[in-house]
Amino acid sequence: MAEQNSAGALQAALGYLARGSKSMAQVRQYLEKKGFQDGEIHAAMDRLLAYGFVDDQAYARRFIATHPSNGQLLLRQKLRQRGIDQDTAQDALSDVPEEEQVDQALEVLKKKLKGQRDRDAVRKAMQAALRRGFPYAIVRSAAARYDEEAVEDLYDQ
Fold first, then answer.
1. Taking a C-beta distance cutoff of 8 angstroms, is the pair 109, 129 a contact?
2. Quick check: pTM over 0.85?
3. What whole-number distance in Å separates Cα of residue 113 and Cα of residue 123?
4. Where in the chain are the domains?
5. Which residues are within 8 A (CB) of 19 and not within 5 positions of it... i.e. 6 or more apart?
6. 145: nearest Cα among 121, 120, 126
7. What whole-number distance in Å separates Cα of residue 17 and Cα of residue 25?
8. pLDDT digits over 81-138, tens only?
9. Hey, do 1-54 and 55-96 end up sharing a CATH topology, with the first three levels equal?
10. Is 44 a residue whose pLDDT tops 60?
11. CATH assignment of 55-96?
């Protein structure tokens, strides 16, 4: 009977994973909510790990890649909410080069500014990028690049 329930937990977990990748913590919570016992959940999680169906490192990398308009601070928080431990999240975040982070913050600034260059508008756009979780140094670099591009546009006209 316990083996049958463990198979049921595995089937439930596979059905849950079929809807999209999840962290180990998310799968564990799902199985707990479904009423499976700790032993059944543990057995199912072991099988999922052995099959490679759950991998927190890969999940964190995919999550980061699919949320490019969020900065590292916000991404770290969202990963923690999804049960990714701090070291795994930091490893995945460290894979994103600083230049790419600046590019992403620049996109946020451009979207907010829509060609404006006045000081107040730039300050508000920078605050928006900070709220999106980009570190100040990254936002500052993106703002400087926005200025450089604006000057280049003036010369091109």
1. yes
2. no
3. 10
4. 1-54, 55-96, 98-156
5. none
6. 126
7. 12
8. 999 999 999 999 999 999 999 999 999 999 999 888 888 999 999 999 999 999 999 9
9. yes
10. yes
11. 1.10.10
Q: Looking at this protein, which amino acid is placed at residue 110?
A: K
Q: In this structure, what token pair is assigned to residue 27?
A: 């799968």
Residue type, 73: L
Kindly tell me if the per-residue pLDDT of 8 is higher than 70: yes
- Find the length of the chain: 157
Half-sphere exposure of 68 (CA within 13 A, CB side): 12
CATH number of 1-54: 1.10.10
32-42 residues labelled b (16+ CB within 10 A) or e (exposed): eeeebeeebbe
**Band of the pLDDT at 148, cuts 50, 70, 90?**
confident
Residue 142 CB neighbours (<10 A): 24
Tell me phi and psi for residue 86, to 5 degrees. Answer: -60, -45
Question: Within 13 Å of residue 132, how many CA atoms lie on the same side as its CB?
Answer: 24
